[in-house]
């Protein structure tokens, strides 16, 4: 089966203040429907890798493929469309627009694609909120809900365009154990019921141990997890 994401010999250098080889020959594949976690010491390059895999950073060597299509070298406008259509992203902090309603926050990425009518987008946003058990919050301002609820809204927003893969950079890093478990269960359900692929950077060993595979990073390399 064609991998959802494939990294081939990715190297990344930061040049300021001095040249620093941050990612070294990263090669691995994410098969469809796999729930993968990435672990490794602080500073080993996890976030840097995720930014490349999510097409937000294009300054690297090597090749990145999404569903078999080579993305490296594509122009920014094309990449941003491919990203919006295929990749959902959840961060440690939710980055919701506090003055907007929960529903509007979830609808925004679908409006960017302009593929559906406003009515269809609203319908889909309600469906995502229902799936995450937060439909009752739809009309509340995003600034007026709890931290755990905000993260569930951020997940709903990441899912609105029905991506092939959901990526997360420590999405439970800011949550208490109850809300972390809640987010883990949501991810598991998305994998099992929707066949979604997930790639999640985490420092939480319990979280990672329950995913299908742990990619272990050390000093810019993948050193474990059958890449
Ligand atoms: N823009 C930048 N310029 C120079 N060096 C950077 C830049 N961004 C990150 N780094 C360095 O690259 C290394 C990897 O950073 P990265 O954020 O990817 O690590 P990480 O594994 O995600 O760490 P953490 O677990 O603490 O979030 C670190 O040494 C960091 O200081």
Automatic annotation (TrEMBL):
It comes from the Bacteria. Keywords: ATP-binding, Nucleotide-binding, Transport. One of its GO terms (molecular function) is transmembrane transporter activity. One of its GO terms (cellular component) is membrane protein complex. Belongs to the ABC transporter superfamily. Macrolide exporter (TC 3.A.1.122) family. Residues 7-227 form the ABC transporter domain. This is ATPase.
């Amino acid at each position: 089966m064609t991998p959802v994401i494939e990294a081939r010999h990715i190297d990344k250098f930061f040049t300021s203040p001095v040249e620093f080889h941050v990612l070294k020959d990263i090669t691995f594949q994410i098969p469809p429907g796999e729930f993968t976690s990435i672990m490794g010491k602080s500073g080993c390059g996890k976030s840097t890798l995720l930014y490349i895999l999510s097409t937000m950073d294009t300054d690297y060597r090597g090749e990145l493929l999404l569903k078999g299509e080579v993305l490296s070298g594509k122009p920014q406008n094309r990449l941003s469309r491919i990203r919006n259509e295929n990749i959902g992203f959840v961060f440690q902090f939710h980055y919701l627009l506090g003055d907007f309603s929960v529903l509007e926050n979830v609808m925004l990425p679908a409006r960017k694609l302009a593929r559906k009518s406003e009515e269809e987008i609203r319908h889909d946003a309600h469906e995502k909120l229902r799936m995450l058990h937060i439909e009752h919050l739809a009309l509340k301002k995003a600034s007026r809900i709890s931290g755990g609820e905000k993260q569930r809204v951020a997940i709903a927003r990441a899912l609105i365009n029905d991506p092939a893969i959901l990526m997360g950079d420590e999405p439970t890093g800011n949550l208490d154990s109850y809300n972390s478990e809640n987010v883990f269960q949501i991810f598991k359900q998305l994998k099992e019921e929707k066949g979604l692929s997930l790639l999640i950077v985490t420092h939480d060993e319990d979280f990672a141990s329950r995913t299908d595979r742990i990619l272990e990073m050390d000093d810019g390399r993948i050193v474990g997890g059958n890449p």
